[in-house]
Amino acid sequence: MTTQLGKRLLSLLACIILLATIALAATEPPMGFPEPLTSKNFKEELSNGLHIIDFYSPYCPHCRQLAPIWMETWEEFKEESKELNVTFSQVNCVESADLCSDEKIERFPDVRLYNPSGYIKSFSENPKTKDSLIAFARRESKNPDNLDADLDSSIKQSEHIKGFDFLELIAGKATTPYLVSFWPAKDLKNGDDTVDFENCNKCHEFQRTWKLISKQLSAEDIKTGHLNCEFNPTVCKELGFGDLVKITNHRGDREPKVALVLPNKTSNSLIDYPKGCSAEPNGYIDFAKRTFANSKFPNITEEELRRKVNKNIEFLQEKRPVSNNDIHLVFTYDPKTVVTEDFDILEYLIEPLSKIPNIYLHQIDKNLIDLSRGVFESMYEKINYNTSEAQKHFNEEYFTMNTVSQLPTFFMFKDGDFVSHVYHGYSTTEMRNIEQIMRWVQRYSTPLVSEVTSSNLKDLLSFQTEDYSNLAIQLVSSGNDKQIRGSNTLINSLLLASWDYEHIRMENNFELINEKRTKKADGIKLLREKKAPADKVVDKMRVEIPHLDHSKLLLGYLDIAKEKNFFKRFGITGDHKVGDVIIIDKSNNYYFTKDNFGNTLTSNKLHLLREAFVSLNIPSKALYASKLKGRLINSPFHNAVSFLDVVHQNGIYGYLLIIVVIITIAKGPSSYRRYKIRKHYKAKRNAVGILGNTEKKKNQD
Ligand SMILES: *[C@@H]1O[C@H](CO)[C@@H](O)[C@H](O)[C@H]1NC(C)=O
Ligand SMILES: *[C@@H]1O[C@H](CO)[C@@H](O)[C@H](O)[C@H]1NC(C)=O
Ligand SMILES: *[C@@H]1O[C@H](CO)[C@@H](O)[C@H](O)[C@H]1NC(C)=O
Ligand SMILES: *[C@@H]1O[C@H](CO)[C@@H](O)[C@H](O)[C@H]1NC(C)=O
């Protein structure tokens, strides 16, 4: 009887599985959906534009998951496909095993971008959705590197460098700079040789990137070379690239490394590329050009600096977004008093500056204080745009307080920015302290306005949190020419509101500092009146008034045509459109999308945007009752794991955890207060202890 039932159940189960399989397999392809490419038509098909190709196996579960998404993507993109010259295609790697082996397909599904001359890069974003695939297609159709037809007859190829020659280069034999790449290979002669790289998923892709880099750098008189680490193990190990010599694990995460050789230098001539491997050539090109330029400490004139700070910030210039957004660090000296040793510090700056994008090093033999003042004064011409508001005035005293320094020192100017910075170098010691100088540089090391993306948001939010309390993000779009032009206007409005706020922030800091000064002076007076010992008075006089520079704004823009999933990903709810501004409080989990009156924050209403900045940071100076209401972001930006991830991993316990976290947050202030009271009490008790009254006190506890 029981076996009967068992059998029936089994056959029912089999039936369900069969039905499910049929249902899965029965996703009908849309009309006109193309057959997979084969080795016969692959080359010919590639010749007509860009292709995004899904290399799949009919047996892999992830491939089957992707199949219906791929069909939908193809269907939705059909029209745009002709317009943008990008086609979604497939290759069945079971039927076309030869083709997949030629293309070195090692895992399924492998979604890759091809142009007529071959493989460009992989699309590795996961999970792969219709939206993310289409966004990829749109992005790549506009990337001029992809259509570079003459790349294969590239004017200058990367040089094959052997270990000994490399050692000579870094010992001072190089007369031009060299950017050198290091590969986990034995026999890569030409950069584009077909080589089997072991355990290096990114190697093939980087071969093309390297070609693009070689081509672009040859126009800059920077040579490129490549070195086989498996053939030159000693050199590579010395350089710290031991993993390129020997496979240490089987994750396939070895990556080609890159370093710059500076010419005519017998020491410190090799600078490592500071970031991980990327298919995008721009980071490498900026690193090589900028670091080589910085290593020469070029002279700059006041006129050039004035032109740079007066530049208009433009969104999407040429290939680089906001290309005129550089930072200029200027070593400023008086030729009458400077000594040769003063210049030594510049040498030590080359390496740390190579790690900060957009930063350029210069020198000048005259004081830049007048330039700095002049530029700052011109900010006031801008922010007095509203005639119905009281005139805002340049505060000479505050300016002097911030810029006082001996020469030599460093000035920092940013493209498009009226506010400059001066390093407080009061002595030789301060001017030779590389750590202190770099700490100061780091504080101001973001460009005037940064592009915000899903991948750099976290870095921006954790950037110098003590000084920069908010990140203000202007929403823009590169969707079409009109939107691009509109985006320039929007970014400039955000800047204007931020300068308007900057004035209020500075005035407030000035007041606070003056209050502290008055208090200090009063304190000294009081001590004198009480005829306190001289050393007490001197101690009081020595107390330094801290140099306040907090509550600064970090500015960014977000291209919503490029970052379609941004809001969802970070749990920012509601509709968001071009023109809107989002403010994120960097020190907690709040974001703000509404102004003090509950309307959407935009840069069209400058005084309300400024008011939002003031209400958040300096509520005592707010004009309207501060009524901004922040939302709790459900994916905390500064925690490694987002709440959503927690739910994902822990199921129901995840939700419980969230509740616990929420309760803790809600209770936070009171338990913190209790902790403080306890601490305070304890301190008191200890003080009593010093007076010799411990025993009695203890008993009372
Ligand atoms: C698409 O790209 C191919 C190859 O680059 C080119 O020959 C063709 O003219 C392009 N078609 C359109 C419509 O742009
Ligand atoms: C390096 O030195 C050589 C020979 O002295 C010179 O020709 C070359 O211009 C120098 N290169 C740089 C970048 O200074
Ligand atoms: C930079 O300026 C100084 C002082 O004017 C001058 O002596 C020096 O030759 C200049 N250097 C270059 C590379 O032009
Ligand atoms: C000027 O400022 C006033 C008061 O802050 C405000 O009501 C008005 O809308 C502003 N005008 C412009 C053009 O921003």
Automatic annotation (TrEMBL):
<comment type="similarity">
    <text>Belongs to the protein disulfide isomerase family.</text>
</comment>
<feature type="domain" description="Thioredoxin">
    <location>
        <begin position="17"/>
        <end position="142"/>
    </location>
</feature>
<dbReference type="GO" id="GO:0006457">
    <property type="term" value="P:protein folding"/>
</dbReference>
<dbReference type="Pfam" id="PF00085">
    <property type="entry name" value="Thioredoxin"/>
</dbReference>
<dbReference type="InterPro" id="IPR017937">
    <property type="entry name" value="Thioredoxin_CS"/>
</dbReference>
<dbReference type="InterPro" id="IPR036249">
    <property type="entry name" value="Thioredoxin-like_sf"/>
</dbReference>
<keyword id="KW-0472">Membrane</keyword>
<feature type="signal peptide">
    <location>
        <begin position="1"/>
        <end position="25"/>
    </location>
</feature>
<keyword id="KW-1133">Transmembrane helix</keyword>
<dbReference type="GO" id="GO:0003756">
    <property type="term" value="F:protein disulfide isomerase activity"/>
</dbReference>
<dbReference type="InterPro" id="IPR013766">
    <property type="entry name" value="Thioredoxin_domain"/>
</dbReference>
<protein>
    <submittedName>
        <fullName>Eps1p</fullName>
    </submittedName>
</protein>
<keyword id="KW-0812">Transmembrane</keyword>
<keyword id="KW-0732">Signal</keyword>
<dbReference type="InterPro" id="IPR051063">
    <property type="entry name" value="PDI"/>
</dbReference>
<dbReference type="GO" id="GO:0005783">
    <property type="term" value="C:endoplasmic reticulum"/>
</dbReference>
<feature type="transmembrane region" description="Helical">
    <location>
        <begin position="652"/>
        <end position="672"/>
    </location>
</feature>
